[in-house]
Specification:
Elements (H helix, E strand, L loop, with lengths): L3 H14 L5 H11 L14 H8 L7 E5 L5 H8 L3 E6 L2 H10 L6 E4 L13 E7 L7 H12 L2 E12 L16 H5 L6 E9 L4 E8 L3 H4 L2
Parallel strand pairs: 1-2, 1-4, 2-3, 4-5
Antiparallel strand pairs: 5-7, 6-7
Helix pairs in contact: 1-2, 2-5
Pfam families: TPMT
Keywords: Methyltransferase, S-adenosyl-L-methionine, Transferase
Protein name: Methyltransferase type 12
Length: about 220
């Protein structure tokens, strides 16, 4: 039987050695579609840390963006609450599988690279969900990914970041490369402010909320 973590680690190492930090995602999803690998983050139920966070944000309206959506489980849940949901992944195979799993979906699924997002997404979303995508990327591209994700949050909008926890000074062989608190805090920018950073010990996860306070007073009127 295939080992999900080993599959991801093998493909990531091959891709990163070629200085291609994101190419391994399509390789992994392709091998999974062929029955030769398992996607380690594939789930049949929405992420509980996302679910409890977004349920508390009623009324559920506006535009939502899901980063690195994979097969779409979280995206479908968010859309079911009433959000106009866009979800993207760098893997065409992942997006094709999401369409196959949810043929009646109202989610707008797109193929996109977090390191080169469409200009039309700049400050366009009221809710942005980033769960374990950045931690799957090597350190040398991580800040570019963080900046790109932060740039999609509309004035008055919120960003949720979910990531594994890494203690300061601890080296890990990834993927994944869980984030330190400093790396979580780096999602704050000239526009975004951290409003809550939780250490969810039971899940060994960070759950952090950031808000784009530029124009937030107008957005709340």
């Amino acid at each position: 039987m295939s080992n999900p973590d080993a599959d991801a680690s093998r493909l990531a190492a091959e891709s990163i050695n070629k200085r291609d930090p994101t190419g391994w995602f399509e390789q992994l999803y392709t091998e999974a579609a062929e029955g030769r690998a398992i996607v380690p983050w594939d789930r049949t139920a929405p992420n509980a840390l996302i679910g409890s966070w977004i349920r508390d944000r009623a009324p559920h309206r506006g535009r939502a963006l899901v980063v690195g959506c994979g097969y779409g489980t979280d995206s479908e849940f968010i859309a079911s609450l009433g959000y106009d949901t866009t979800a993207f992944d760098i893997s065409q195979t992942a997006i094709d599988t999401a369409h196959a799993r949810f043929p009646e979906s109202v989610v707008q699924y797109e193929v996109a690279d977090v390191l080169d997002l469409p200009q039309r997404w700049l400050r366009a979303f009221d809710v942005v969900i980033e769960s374990i995508t950045v931690q799957s990327m090597p350190v040398w591209v991580r800040q570019n990914a963080v900046a790109a994700i932060a740039s999609t949050v509309a004035p008055g909008g919120s960003l949720l970041v979910v990531s594994g926890i890494r203690e300061d000074g601890v080296e890990v062989e990834g993927p994944p490369w869980p984030l330190t608190r400093e790396e979580i805090e780096s999602f704050a920018s000239t526009a975004l402010t951290a409003t809550r950073i939780e250490r969810v010990t039971s899940e060994n996860r960070w759950r952090a909320t950031f808000m784009n306070e530029l124009g937030s007073e107008m957005a709340g009127d």
